[in-house]
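so im writing up the methods section and need the protein-serine/threonine phosphatase record in one place, dumping it here so i stop losing it
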Amino acid sequence: MACVHVECFGHYKKWCRSRCNCCVHCHSTHAAADPSRVHEYDPSIAPLHRVRHVLSGASLGSSAVPCAGLRLQYSSLTQRGYYPGRPDRANQDSFYVKTQFQGNPDLHFFGVFDGHGDLGAQCSAFVRDRLTDILAGDPRLWENTTEAYRSAFAATNMALHDSEIDDSSSGTTAITVLVRGDTLVVANVGDSRAVAGVWDGDRVVAEDLSSDHKPLREDERERLRQYGAMVSGEEDPDERSWSDDEETYKPDTPRLWGRDFGLALSRSFGDSDLESVGLIAVPELKVVKLTANHSFFVVASDGVFDFLSSQAVVDMVSCFADPRDACSAIAARSYQSWLRHGRRHGRRLGRRTDDITIIIVQLKDLAEGDSTTYR
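--- predicted struct ---
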């Protein structure tokens, strides 16, 4: 039953900001968001079922973090993009969820990998498998997590270069969150994103756990230029300065240019042809101490965050008791946004969507147990 105090799936003007349970019970039973209803919020968008877009079923899992007194309840969903001219195009996103990582009940790993280029799907899967294998075998992971991550990212990128995959103009992002007791360790390369939902008074606000690696970011752009890189838009190659408002530049976002192609990322695994002009796979790391106000975190590809803000995603997650429903709702809303923006920008984007991958992890009190039943 929908909460009478909040428009859970559309506009947020009537948001319920109290700590009462009304929003928690917005969707107390597990019923994936109905894709055919998404168009009700924008009549110009065709219902999703008319373009053969079917949301994959979201999974549900739970695991304790004994030393922190937490229980993680998590859901994940990945959805291939809608490409009318390429119906057999593979989903280039991949993800990895491993509770009790290294056999440690207080270590839990969540990661999303978004491939790009002709061999993006292969790059994404390779990095997912190799990175997690290296981390799983590193005894430093608990005591010296950041050093273990830096080493694993470097070794994984080198292994991708040395593999049979031609990564000269293909690669992948990586956004990973390691729950280490009462701490989150976030490692990021590329423009996939992690964000936490944190109680602030009577509302849940977004706390970005990562910062996108794009040439639009001034510090990244300056780092690239130290390598002599050319950074410019695709449609306006003479553009040399940008503000931080990415929406202003869609779809002609600044790119890092090599000899044969441009990439809208400043950091990535693979893409070996761009390493000479500053592309790196060095992760930015952030360590966050969890508090009683941390409610959940989200890890997702840019198929979600290209057109939904961190706060919009947090608002939607806050509206659902079951993270599976939140995953499905966000995927459907992201899909709608891609089609709407594609229509607005014409041929440059077209009526298509990106691949979409979401992991939602709720942070619950272990002592309360699992009192919620999903049907």
